[in-house]
Amino acid sequence: MAIKVLIINEHQDQNEPCIDFHPRGFSVHKINAGKMVVNDIREMKPDVIIIDSSGPDQDNGNAYWNLRAISKAPILVLSVVDKPGIVEKVLDRGADEYLLKPVSPGLLAARINALARRTYRDGFAA
After folding, report:
1. What are 53-76's pLDDT values in tens digits?
2. Contact 60, 40 (CB under 8 A)
3. Which of 2, 5, 43, 113 is the residue whose CA sits 20 to 30 A from 19?
4. Rounded distance, CA 116 to CA 107, Å?
């Protein structure tokens, strides 16, 4: 069964993660951040949510907790921001993983698989 990955791109003008997901066993849906995110999550029921956050401010406040209210899917944040305290801040706000871009396709795929394994020990979300 394919792992359902939802990629939320916070910045429409940014490139998406550079990985060919399908040969790696992932079913991918890509959306831009906005009001329809909640509907997309409820409809898709993703196994893993990737937030592609390239903004230098990276202050999502309660965004991760809001996602938790509608989905048990683990949240992986991709970002170019590498400043002291940012990883801790993002993880404390509810994300499960933080990776710096650029990230190798192999590492990204491995992290997605690891998050799915830990979260769905009895099988993937349906």
Report:
1. 865 554 555 677 778 888 999 999
2. no
3. 43
4. 14
Q: How far apart are CA 122 and CA 100, in angstroms?
A: 30
DSSP-assigned beta bridge partners for residue 63: none
Tokens 């394994």 correspond to 117
Are the CB atoms for 54 and 11 separated by under 8 Å?
yes
Q: Is the pTM of this model over 0.85?
A: no
Bridge-based pairing of strands 75-79 and 3-9 is unpaired
d(CA 87, CA 80): 11
Residue 119 burial (CB < 10 Å; 0-12/13-18/19+)?
Answer: middle
Phi, psi dihedrals of residue 41, rounded to the nearest 5°: -65, -45
DSSP structure string for 73-109: --EEEEES---TTHHHHHHHTT-SEEEESS--HHHHH
